[in-house]
Amino acid sequence: MPSESSLHCQVLVVGAGPAGGDLARRLAFQGVDVILVDRLTDLNRSAFSSAALPIASMQVFGLPAEVVGSRWRQWQLIGPGSATRSWASPQPLGVVLDFGALRRWQADQCLRWGGRVALGLQACCSHQEGERMVTLLRRADGTLLRVSSDWTVDASGQARALLGDPPPAQRPRDGLVRAAGLEWLLQVSLTCWERWADRLSFCLGSDWVPQGYGWIFPMQPGVLKLGVCRLVDPQRQQPPLGRLITELGRRLLPGEVFKVLDRHGGLVRSTIRRREPHQRGRLVGLGDAVSTANLLGGEGIRHALTSSAVLAPLLQEALAASGASTSAQQALQDYAPQLRRALGWRWSLSGRLARRTWLGLHEAKADGRLDQVLRGLDGCRAEDLSALLFGYRFERYGLRAMPYLLGWR
Ligand SMILES: Cc1cc2nc3c(=O)[nH]c(=O)nc-3n(C[C@H](O)[C@H](O)[C@H](O)COP(=O)(O)OP(=O)(O)OC[C@H]3O[C@@H](n4cnc5c(N)ncnc54)[C@H](O)[C@@H]3O)c2cc1C
């Protein structure tokens, strides 16, 4: 029988990704007794996210320069085929974060504001006992830690370690949509790096990555991120991601002798309409655990941070009101609707567009349609492209085009 020890706190946050790390630091700042745990023993490891963000997010979410890998001011879209289009701005448009540094910084902030951080702890299960949550965590040596808390937050990402997957959808198209990604961190020559610096480059079209896309993002001088991502299509046999990324490297970096510093990857799993329960009693979901990853660009960091900005004040109110006669469910009843409002009305539109675009992108006909859409962007400014890809402002390109884009025509 593994030995067991126990801890008490007001809020236990399971998962030190962008969502959990941000919530823990916000709550600690407000004087809440918070414990942040993660199964990783080192937050530098498994830095699976390519972590591209628009520049405004740095200020909106109060992120420091130390978490930035590089800045970019240009979009470059390669494909379908060999067509290359680029849009440049004189100003920085965004950043590529060092994902490990972001997680470390958040955990460090939580500690500095008086919170507790415990790594190498895997949450196994949780249940409610009266008005407290009891969560069992396993250490690498098999011993157990029992944490009793007023609230437990499942910020374990797409794994949804405590909340579990949403109940089977009434309509099959409302279920979880999955995307799989693989990324290599490459050491390249400075001459090679300079060709890709300052820009986000995406490869689009079925001859690059069927049902998905590839990318090269710059990090600090001499380091690039090379990645592939695609929607999982159970109806189709899909080529292995390892083969696709090797081929991408061969085509984009011809003749370059690069060193692979790290290989990482992961899954993104989200529902399109985000109607799943966000809470079960005193267990609350945050970030990817409640489908805040957007499937159009596999982008979830901003939205994970948004979910914690919404939840933090509501949790504080709920803690302040503890003892009053409101139930846990009532105390956080505004969470899901407020988060839906914060993500905006274009959210599920972008998800449907993602499903249609990526799943359909496996043949020349779809490449032709994509090429037409990209041609329509030729006269845009780089800032307009950011508004489209980060702000999901499809209506700018004509409401008449939307039914076509969404597959209603
Ligand atoms: C290949 C790839 C590329 C991406 N690129 C981008 C990008 O460019 N821009 C962008 O915005 N987003 C990107 N994303 C998505 C983004 O990384 C996620 O949406 C974001 O990290 C979600 O944050 P989170 O905190 O909700 O979950 P996560 O970041 O997944 O964090 C969850 C944490 O919980 C821990 N955990 C899981 N289970 C347990 C358990 N049982 N016990 C304890 N701890 C546990 C994990 O170790 C992890 O640290 C990418 C994703 C992938 C896979």
Describe the structure.
The chain has 409 residues and is an alpha/beta fold. Helix content is 30%, strand content 30%. The chain has helices at residues 18-29, 56-60, 99-112, 190-196, 241-252, 301-320, 328-331, 335-343, 347-360, 364-375, 382-391, 402-405; strands at 4-14, 34-38, 52-54, 68-72, 74-78, 84-88, 94-97, 116-119, 121-129, 132-139, 144-154, 176-187, 199-204, 212-218, 223-231, 259-271, 279-280, 283-285. The strands form 3 sheets. Strands 1, 2, 8, 9, 10, 11, 17 and 18 form an 8-stranded mixed sheet that branches. It has a 7-stranded mixed sheet with strand order 6-5-13-14-15-12-16, sandwiched between helices. A 3-stranded antiparallel sheet has the order 3-7-4. Helix 1 (18-29) runs parallel beside helix 3. The longest helix is centred in the C-terminal third of the chain and has 20 residues, at 301-320. The protein binds flavin-adenine dinucleotide. Flavin-adenine dinucleotide binds at residues 14-20, 37-40, 48-52, 122-123, 155-157, 159, 161, 181, 183, 227, 229, 265-266, 268, 287-288, 293, 298-302, 304. The site of flavin-adenine dinucleotide has 39 residues, from helix 1, strand 2, strand 9, strand 12 and strand 15.
